[in-house]
Amino acid sequence: MPNDAAALTHHLAHYGIVPCASLTHWQARWNAVDAAxxxxxxxxxxxxxxRAPTTAEQLRFYGALAVPQVAGVMYSRQANTLHAIGSAVxxxxxxxxxxxxxxxxxxxxxxxxxxxxxxRSATGIDFVPQCIASARALAQAAxxxxxxxxxxxxxxxxxxxxxxxxxxxxxxxxxNAAPALALVRNALQRDGIFVSVVAxxxxxxxxxxxxTLAAAGLHVHKLQFVYGTDLGQTAAHPLLLAAVxxxxxxVDIAGGFAAARLPGA
Length: 265
Hints:
This protein has two domains: about 70 residues, no CATH class; about 180 residues, Vaccinia Virus protein VP39 (Rossmann fold, 3-Layer(aba) Sandwich), CATH 3.40.50.150. It has eleven helices and seven strands. A seven-stranded mixed beta sheet has the order 3-2-1-4-5-7-6. The N and C termini lie far apart (about 35 Å).
């Protein structure tokens, strides 16, 4: 299965992730989900801006979200963004042998990196057991090998080394990413790459995350933006490509943001 738009659309649809033209369209899909499943998710609502969720709250929320019928609809809110991220990351890791995907959730992107033939082997890791169970049940890699493991990425990573490690909206959301990044650095082969899509990335927060990467021995070689339009709104997601080796030229993150095609600019 090649890394092309139609194939990726079909792949995401297998997970129930399909674009919704409007919030009304999405709401209709959500209302069609079994009422008990909707209630189970509603009962795990996160604290929002008042405080950071506890580990137990995160486990309950993502455990309820991991039910395939629920996850497919919920992630359809950002279907076009996930499509853009999957395409961009697959292109960057193309030709790599061993890929590790951090915070893989139900495996919809991890499995794409294997199924598209971008990498020979892909491993997804997530700390929510229900996510791993759903990822294993839904996986249908067309080529290469694919596996999912249950684990806390701030404590340990799967054994072995990898020449590509990916992260979509995971490490940049941690209150302290340093322990996880130290593990990433140790698990990354000398010539490997780390690709991170930064969550809620402004120029300041992206620069701060890049500095945290550098402190862990991972140096940013490239900044690019992934654009997605969902429910009538376009968002730009900064993507950082880092490696152990120092770049020939320092990446100007502030300048990159200034030059980017950012929504509302």
